[in-house]
Amino acid sequence: MDETKNIQNLYQAAIGEQFLVKKVDIQGELKRRLLDLGFVQNSVIEVLKASPLGDPISYRVAGTVIALRKEESQLIYGEVIPS
Predict the structure, then answer these.
(1) pLDDT for 26-52, tens place per residue?
(2) Chain centroid to CA 43
């Protein structure tokens, strides 16, 4: 079975879905901040809601709500967890 066929970026996950993080492809200070906030491999992210213009989108991770811009969320890879 090909594990990579279900991999997508966090931005592609729909509102209300849960997302299992597999890889954070960001470098530097932002990567460290995201890791500190809980965006680590095998963490579960819940997609909460988008701002009125669609960017940024708020996510719940490790009990905290975080808003990420499209550019950031497109660099976090994983898969949607079936409900």
Answers:
(1) 889 999 999 999 999 999 999 999 999
(2) 9
